[in-house]
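Notes from the 1:1 (GR / supervisor)

We went over the backlog. Supervisor wanted to see one worked example end to end before approving the batch request, so GR pasted a single chain during the call. The sequence is below; no edits were made to it. Supervisor asked that the structure be written out right there so they could see what the output format looks like.
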Amino acid sequence: MKKILISAAVVAGVAFGMNGQANAACGEFQMSDMNWPSATLMANVDKIILEEGFGCKIELIPGATTATFATMNEKGQPHVAAELWTNAVSVELEKAMSEGRLHSAIKGPITELGEGWWVTPGTLKRNPEFKTVLDILERPDLFPDKEDPSKGAFIGCPAGWGCQLSNQQLFKAFEMEKKGWVLVDPGSQAGLDASMAKAAQRDQNWLGYYWSPTAPVGKYEMQLMDFGVPFVGHDHWNSCIALGPEKCADPKPSAWTESVVQTVVTPEIKSMPDVMTYFSSRIYPGPIMNGMLVYMEENQATGPDAALEFLDQHQDIWTKWVSADVAAKVKKSL
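Structure output shown during the call:
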């Protein structure tokens, strides 16, 4: 079955503006329903809006970052990856885009996302002088390690995670051991989450690695810290910090590398102006996304469940992505 059915109007070169969105026939195509909460929420919201508001027919295909990218790059399917974290495939993606196999519909579909070092909100309330990581590193006494309370505890990544190497290198680059810190391996994501949750629930100080959008960041209102130093550059990050202490003995202090997230599409979608306009307008505020992830966790909500909750509770956000005509059709379907 042909997956992309472009209307005669589009073939003829008729471009629809925002006011004509609801009448644009966009046909049938596949979207990746990737295996983490924010991505499945986004895919299911897209499915409802595109089907009910634009008259599309969407098939959601299970996926993950590298597998989805590979099939899009090699086979042209699925046609859309709503939340593709592109750091892991940056070289291949750049090549695919330069050769016209893939296109970016929007860079940054979620605001305030990324990795880095976080603290509990109580940490900053009690210590308003903490403006950057550099400030915090001078006070290991406020973050006592449970094994050795004379040392400050920095909670890193579990062994085997790629971010473990980067955290080891930054721990070394900032001379944290000399300043009285220990790097704690939480053992697993469950251990990392439990460490954060315990500190937040008890209103204790906590410093550690994490990322957003995630339910724990939203649930506990975790605060991402500025490192107080600039990003060292991709060359040093990729050739030293990301490789770990066994492969690079002289890491330089640095902010965390930027996490790049894009909505990536195939040429078929690129040829649909109304769909591309929708994707380029579709931006989730980070705090709202984190709140939705908390909802999904606490209610064991599926992607379709969460999409309906988002569309019902956050009409002030998504109605700005589409025309009034499209918004009315979507609202009527809920």
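Supervisor's comment: The two ends are 29 Å apart (CA to CA).
Batch request approved.
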